[in-house]
Amino acid sequence: MSLPNLTIFKVWYSITPMPDPKCRMLIADDHSVIRTGLRYLLEQNVKNLSIAEADSCQGLLRALKDSFFTHLILDLQLGDCNSLEIIPGILRSNPGLRVLVYTMSSEEAFAQRLLNMGVHGFLSKEADEETVSKALDHFLLRGSYLGDSLRQKLLLREKQPPASANPFDELSDREMTVLLYLLQGLRVKEISARLDLKMSTIATYKVRIFEKLGVNNLADMQRLADLYHVG
Length: 231
What we know:
This protein is an alpha/beta fold. The chain has helices spanning 32-45, 57-66, 87-93, 107-117, 129-142, 148-159, 173-183, 188-195, 199-213, 218-227, and strands at residues 24-28, 50-54, 71-74, 77-78, 81-82, 98-103, 121-124.
């Protein structure tokens, strides 16, 4: 998997710009307490910031179609879809939109993949309030955010790319999407309906996932996912 271009993140060391009064924020998360908490932190630090909310993929896509936004804070797992499915389309349709993924999913498993897709930052929901506030400041004022630890890892890999020890890095974005649905307990028929693909196509993806991960069944796949904090 190719490494993301880190040039946009090196601007962090320049003078902090003033917030653009035309910033329009959309928060997409299926937990109201998360949306409320993020809104509170944003409103505490920035005056006159326009903030809208969505609690599903359908609501998110509808909001992006109906209104203009400059920034999007997006959960990786929404109730009606996995955001891996829609991020590429969102970025293509909204080329100026800055996207920060705020998630419980593993940084090791997903951060680099998401950055390669074109998102502008990754933030763990396990981060403390101070870190979240700092991340929101960076994201709103500078358009991007990476935590210090992740940034250092990516810079190190950029200088000397290692062979990945994480088998999940071998999966394509589509295979990862299918895997996440399998981990949620969805059957092939249900996944085919979610992704609007033939059942035979999903079955083929499932076989490829098993082969790449070196597992023979769903139980082994789940144990491996738990080991690497995927899901």
